[in-house]
Each structure stands twice: as structure tokens, then as C-alpha cells.
From TrEMBL:
Residues 128-173 form the RNA polymerase sigma factor 70 region 4 type domain. Keywords: Sigma factor, Transcription, Transcription regulation. This is Sigma-70 family RNA polymerase sigma factor. Residues 29-94 form the RNA polymerase sigma-70 region domain. InterPro entries: RNA_pol_sigma-70-like, RNA_pol_sigma-70_dom, RNA_pol_sigma70_r2, RNA_pol_sigma70_r4_t2, RNA_pol_sigma_r2, RNA_pol_sigma_r3/r4-like, WH-like_DNA-bd_sf. It comes from the Bacteria. Belongs to the sigma-70 factor family. ECF subfamily. It holds the Pfam family Sigma70_r4_2.
């Protein structure tokens, strides 16, 4: 097994290829993560065109600043998702602030509540997409099909104890959606306009 602090080989190689300016690497990265980026941006912004812009901005940032990703800090997928989240929340905040100024009503507290809700929703979406399939399957059965742990165990062909464990771990992961961390490798004032 690899050392805990050793980043995945693909992540290191991809960063090196991007740093050398390999356009094919950007295409490969886009193919792998575009749906994730667009989906997270759309979850935060609720707007298809804005999500398209964020998707473009994220990949432009990765192309222009491949060294801002530090493989020792975590997987490239997480870094790209964090960058997406940061840029989408930044755009939501700017858009909503402009709307408040035009309308002359509303408050910054309402704005921050809306931004916080969109942020937590996007984090929860990313967590569910990233969790191991057995945990996600158990949560989907329990949530979407209203199965209890006994029915989930029967549907998945596992013991009741295993079903409870999967549900508990899945819910514990989802609970972390409220934790807001500073995005690694994201410049503080990056506006993302390309």
C-alpha cells in the first residue's frame, strides 16, 4: 500500500503534463471532471449559463495555474471541486449583491443565508458523488425508497449490522457538508473571468 502522504500517481502526472503545457492533458482532465464541475456549479448557482461560465473558468484556471495544485494536499478531483465551489460561491455572492443593490430591498443576512445554503448543498452533492458505492447505495435506498436498515440489508444482500454501518458512515460523511474549509491553491481574489 502507498504511503498516506503520497499523492495518487495519476494526479502527479496530470499536474506535470499541465505544467509542461500539454493541451492533451487539459482535454483529458476536462473529459474526466467537466460533468463534476458543471454539476457543482449548477447546484450552487441554479443557472445553466452561469454553470457553463464557471466550468470554463475552472479549466482556464487549471490551465493557467497548474502549480497552484499541491498533490500532497489531496486528490486532484477534490481540488478541482473546491476550486469550482469557490468560484461558484463567489459568482453567486456577486450576482446576489448586485440584485440587492438594484432592488433596494433584502439584506446581507439573507444573501449570506442563500450563499451558505447553496454552498452546503454543493458540498453535500460532491460528498455523495465521491463516497464509495456501497455507502451511496445504502443511503439512496434509505432516502429515495424510504427503506429502513432491515429492508436496505435485504435489498443489498448484506447483514443488518452491515447495513446500519453503511448508513451511519454515509450520514457521517454527509454531516461534514457543513464544514467549510479554505480552498487549497485558490487565489483569494480570483474572479475567474476569462
Amino acid at each position: 500500500m502507498a504511503k498516506k502522504d503520497a499523492p495518487p500517481r495519476w494526479d502527479r502526472k496530470m499536474q506535470q503534463r499541465l505544467a509542461r503545457g500539454e493541451a492533451a492533458a487539459l482535454g483529458e482532465l476536462y473529459d474526466r471532471f467537466a460533468s463534476l464541475v458543471h454539476g457543482l456549479a449548477h447546484t450552487v448557482l441554479g443557472d445553466e449559463r452561469a454553470a457553463d461560465h464557471i466550468t470554463r473558468d475552472v479549466f482556464a484556471h487549471v490551465w493557467e495555474h497548474p502549480d497552484s495544485y499541491d498533490p500532497k494536499q489531496g486528490p486532484l478531483r477534490s481540488w478541482v471541486a473546491t476550486l469550482t465551489h469557490h468560484l461558484a460561491v463567489q459568482r453567486l455572492r456577486a450576482t446576489e449583491t448586485a440584485a440587492l443593490a438594484r432592488a433596494g430591498r433584502g439584506s446581507t443576512e439573507e444573501l449570506e443565508r442563500k450563499v451558505r445554503h447553496a454552498s452546503v448543498t454543493a458540498r453535500a452533492d460532491f460528498i455523495v458523488q465521491s463516497m464509495p458505492v456501497p455507502l451511496r447505495a445504502a443511503l439512496e435506498l434509505a432516502y429515495f425508497q424510504r427503506r429502513d436498515y432491515r429492508q436496505t440489508a435485504a435489498d443489498l444482500g448484506v447483514t443488518e449490522d452491515e447495513a446500519r454501518r453503511r448508513l451511519r458512515l454515509g450520514l457521517q460523511l454527509l454531516a461534514t457538508a457543513h464544514d467549510a474549509g479554505a480552498p487549497p491553491g485558490v487565489p483569494p481574489g480570483y474572479g475567474g473571468a476569462v
